[in-house]
Design a protein that fits this description.
The structure is a homotrimer of 311-residue chains.
Chain A: H1 13-25, E1 38-43, H2 49-60, E2 64-69, E3 76-77, E4 90-91, H3 92-102, E5 105-109, H4 117-121, H5 124-132, E6 137-139, H6 147-160, E7 167-172, H7 182-193, E8 197-201, H8 210-213, E9 217-219, H9 222-226, E10 231-235, H10 257-260, E11 264-266, H11 279-282, H12 289-310
Parallel strand pairs in A: 1-2, 1-5, 3-4, 5-6, 7-8, 7-10, 8-9, 10-11
Binding site for carbamoyl phosphate (chains A, B, C): 47-50, 74, 109, 146-149, 268-269, 296
GO biological process, one term (chains A, B, C): citrulline biosynthetic process
Keywords (chains A, B, C): Amino-acid biosynthesis, Arginine biosynthesis, Transferase
């Protein structure tokens, strides 16, 4: 693997999932692979799971880990040809070039604006690092994608599937704040690659980017959509068409134990209890959220392993 | 040791103090004990000594150390059954469960509100981690206790005691800000367990929780109380009865060289010079503050060692 | 080396430069030199290059690295004899003494006020650490000096010099913000020690401290000064005489490809494009800014190596 900014970077998905599961059984098997190499975790936005799981995965492989909250440094300039006489102190060309002097791998987290659709879709931060850094880049959640989360989710589904072709439903849920589409986008792309019966349910107006959902069936009737589901992945996202807007906070879309039935419940976390999902589900035995969080480590570790093997 | 959230968790105090002193002589003797294990240091409040000494202690034992300032992540919800549609993004149930996926030990610092006595006494943050985390919890100073500081203080007293049963006095001092009772509480509990002649002196109204001070003698006359003291531990705290309030800033309670006489001076630091204690004391030969700070490392190390041995 | 707070601390400059270049070829040759030792990186101000390069250098030598943003802790008091009843919570005497309990080397970054010339020239923060810490101190950029940057620059010049006595010009450039003189000061002092033909060019009123520039020739005519230069080091600084003030933002002082000619371009970064220097220069083949940034690691590493060898 040369980088991991999008799911496409995985050459062999089923092999990669198997490899992750075997790393989970023996996390320190390759503890010398990263020796004398350094990964830099670069955060433009706050992080809990992604930071700790990626740091742990890197240490498991013997990598040195350096962490930088960009806000502890200064504002970066991303526009070409600007006269930098305002608030930005360093251009991404220098920043990415310099960071490449200190790190063998750079992992970046940069959320969308949710106001400028074009800019967000251009992945201006992540793609600038890809363009100007001279080392492999890992996406720790960008404006439009969260491929490490999607890989952890794929690992989790393959661990808990009881049928050859499980039914997986992505169900929108209400949320008081406007959230990115990144997690939903990457989950959709990942499910399209797995041998699952996949569909999406959300209120009208919450359609994700059609270039991502493609032929995936979308059902505006949650109850119908959830029937006989094996895995229900619940997530809020703001509108893509009416970009970044909250069109509905309809409580009827909250996930409940009754709706879930015997299906496994999945969520990337953090989750707002009794808004996105009721307590009974999270406190019940069908919740896989902790297993998903745990698999974040091994998703990151298998990606780092494959990148290190090609360094 | 299964955890270290309170002094009671130490099964054999005198043995533990001896063990800490021997670790001080050879800090790296057990440098492989923590191999392939990770400690997470979680800060809800700022820290200098506690953070660096605990990090160093963990590294001395070969532990991987991950540090997270919770404020760099987001607000946690601690109430049960809440509808999380306000400012909290993640419930402690998920947070503690998730963090337990990445760490073998979690150390937590969370100060009191000093406004809600009941809530502070319930140790809502620390006890929530105890309840929902699946790994051992260490108290890096909670609302009502600072057991790592108290252990470092006990080590220091046992190193510098010249008599079989030294006289130790805890003396309140003025301070411009309302401070927690945590350090004083834990010092009192620790002294009650040591073979020392212990008493407390403070202005009326500054009585600590009677369930903690128990039969410990309290003298409102500082001069009387300090007579023939071997160790004088100076500390400010806000009122417990009139909870969190500053009842006095009486400069006469500041510790001076004259009052101290030949006694050893102790303070957990940080200390405000010429408010809590005059320069002459801190700059004199009877001050043990640096030795106390140094022993923070070995207090943390002996606790981590005993926890690792039971993991 | 007992410390590295100023360039004078280097006993043999040409040997040190040679040693740095050999470390660059084999960064892990001395990876056990720092074993069981800890460096603390202490930041009063934000940092990108200095933090990452110093952290990397320390890890290359097997040092444990602890990083503390002082602002995550609390305000330190530097005045003697103060009654600390205001905003400062801990005196540098205690802080430096305590930090010396946890670290074998302390590296400090503390920028100038640019308002109080006397205080800045006294290097009150750095010199207080020198005075009260009991371990070696490294200057990661102080009020008036940036000796690690100057050493990296010297390494870079010695790597790229094509003539026995290259012509090096330090050229002031405009900047929207008032910047310290630290980088310029240390570069001047370093060039005075190398076998180079060195001169400075800047608008009138931007003279650096005459006790630093000494007999170094200063030319107010940039075009004249740049003639036949081999290396042009561009940097903005605020006025020293009219302390901390911006006297000019004259765009004609911006470095251009035309002015630069065949000379190598140097800058410590971060740099504001098309204000300090035009895109064509940074994007051209004569720019050494990334090589300078890379050499920050080996400047720090050779300093740490020499300090560790005397610990």
């Amino acid at each position: 693997m040369k980088k991991y900014t999008e799911i496409k970077d995985i050459s062999n998905l089923s092999e990669t999932i198997k490899e992750a599961i075997s790393l989970k059984k023996n996390p320190h098997e390759f503890e010398t692979l990263g020796k004398h190499k350094t990964i830099l975790l670069l955060f433009f936005n706050s992080s809990l799971r992604t930071r700790l799981s990626t740091e742990k995965a890197a240490r498991n492989l013997g990598l040195e880990v350096m962490i930088l909250n960009v806000n502890d440094a200064w504002n970066l300039e991303f526009e070409d040809g600007t006269i930098m006489n305002a608030n930005t102190s360093e251009h991404i060309k220098e920043a990415a070039g310099v960071l490449s002097q200190y790190a063998d791998i750079i992992a970046v987290r940069a959320f969308p604006s949710l106001t400028d659709k074009e800019k967000d879709q251009s992945e201006w931060v992540l793609s600038s690092f890809e363009k100007y850094a001279t080392v492999p880049i890992i996406n720790m959640e960008s404006a439009m994608a969260h491929p490490l989360q999607a890989l952890a989710d794929a690992i989790t589904i393959s661990e808990f599937a009881n049928t050859p072709k499980p039914k997986v439903v992505l169900s929108w849920a209400p949320h008081p704040k406007a959230l990115p589409q990144a997690v939903a986008n990457s989950f959709v792309e990942m499910m399209q690659l797995l041998d699952v019966d996949f569909s999406i349910t959300h209120p009208e107006g919450y359609e994700l980017d059609p270039e991502i959902t493609k032929k995936t069936s979308i059902n505006y009737n949650q109850e119908e959509a959830l029937q006989d589901a094996d895995f229900v992945y619940v997530k809020n996202w703001s509108s893509y068409s009416d970009y970044g807007k909250i069109l509905s906070q309809d409580k009827h879309w909250m996930m409940t134990q009754k709706k879930l039935g015997t299906a496994k419940f999945m969520h990337c976390l953090p989750v707002r209890r009794n808004v996105v999902v009721e307590d009974a589900v999270l406190d019940g035995t069908n919740s896989l959220v902790l297993q998903q969080a745990n698999n974040r480590t091994f998703a990151a570790q298998v990606v780092l392993k494959q990148i290190l093997e090609e360094l």
